Amino acid sequence: MRTTQTLDLNARTIIDAGIAEAERIGNPMNIAVVDAGGCLLAFARMDDAWRGSVDIAIGKAWTARAFDVETKALAKLAQPGADFYGIHASNDGKVMIFAGGVPIKEGETVIGAVGVSGGTGKQDQGVAEAAAQAFARG
């Protein structure tokens, strides 16, 4: 059985899986992996990925870990009139409520997260899911 310390050893595998999916769909991405504490473990900016998306990818990863939820789901809860409306302004504006942040789990325990930015919400989400699944297969 793996321990939670293995996430740092697998961060490059997670990044590589995200890069492979981004290449498959033909869209360069920024990909970030954070640990259980939300600290950045690994980051990759593919050639021609939007520079403005670097902090967004890192923020999505942090948000997915901070709330243990996909940012895509949090976005729905953060709409006007919903329970978490305004959450994006919390934590000094660090919370990202765009699709593309996915918790990484070991069993039922969240041990980190991956965040992806540089495409549409659907593209970011798909690349993040592919990256997170690389740990599950690990």
UniProtKB/TrEMBL annotation:
Gene3D superfamilies: Haem-degrading domain (3.30.450.150). GO terms for molecular function: transferase activity. The keyword Disulfide bond does not apply. Coiled coil: none annotated. It comes from the Bacteria. Keywords: Transferase. It holds the Pfam family HbpS-like. PANTHER family: PROTEIN GLCG, SLR1406 PROTEIN. This is Cobalamin adenosyltransferase. It comes from Sphingobium cloacae.
